């Protein structure tokens, strides 16, 4: 079963829904949607956001924060993992480590 590593800011930013007006609320919305997806599919999902830690509620999803989420995701990527991002440089880095990649929009269609 693939483990999804989600580039939270990249996915959040791929929807022009006003996320920039209330970043913590947008993060929670994404986590809620990922929680629902994880509950439906039974697949483990980790989401990494850039920046300082926020208090987000998650049941099925592991949420973490980093000064630079791309570095954390690239360090954790390996065969059997699917990274969710549309960031070309991160795509290059994680594919070099054997991880699969899907774009942010592809994930959003599953939510």
**β-strand amount:** 15-25%
Work out the number of β strands: 5
Q: How are helices and strands ordered from N to C?
A: EHHEEHEHEH
| CATH fold-level assignment | Rossmann fold
Q: What structural class should be given to the helix and strand makeup? A: alpha/beta
What's the CATH class, please? Alpha Beta
- Provide the gyration radius in Å: 13 Å
Count of alpha/pi helices:
5
Q: How many separate domains make up the residues?
A: 1
The CATH architecture assignment turns out to be 3-Layer(aba) Sandwich
Return the average pLDDT rounded to an integer.
Answer: 94
Q: Going across the biggest sheet, name each strand in turn.
A: 3-2-1-4-5
Q: Portion of residues in helices?
A: 40-55%
Distance separating the two termini? 18 Å
Enumerate the spans where pLDDT stays under 50 for 5 or more consecutive residues: none
Strand count, sense and barrel status of the largest sheet are:
5 strands, parallel
* Mass-distribution shape: globular
Provide an overview of this structure:
With 111 residues, this protein is α/β, with parallel strands linked by helices. The protein has helices at residues 8-13, 23-41, 69-76, 88-96, 104-110; strands at residues 3-7, 45-50, 61-66, 81-84, 100-102. It has one domain (3-110): Rossmann fold. Strands 3-2-1-4-5 form a five-stranded parallel beta sheet. The two termini are 18 Å apart. The chain contains five helices and five strands. The model has no long low-confidence stretch (mean pLDDT 94).
């Amino acid at each position: 079963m693939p483990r999804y590593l989600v580039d939270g800011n990249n996915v959040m930013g791929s929807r022009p829904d006003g996320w920039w007006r209330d970043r913590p609320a947008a993060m929670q919305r994404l986590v809620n949607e990922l929680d629902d997806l994880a509950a439906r599919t039974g697949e483990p999902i980790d989401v990494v956001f850039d920046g300082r830690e926020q208090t987000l509620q998650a049941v099925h999803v592991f949420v973490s924060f980093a000064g630079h989420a791309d570095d954390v995701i690239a360090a954790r990527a390996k065969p059997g993992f699917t990274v969710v991002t549309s960031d070309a440089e991160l795509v290059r880095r994680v594919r070099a480590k054997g991880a699969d990649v899907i774009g942010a929009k592809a994930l959003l269609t599953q939510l």
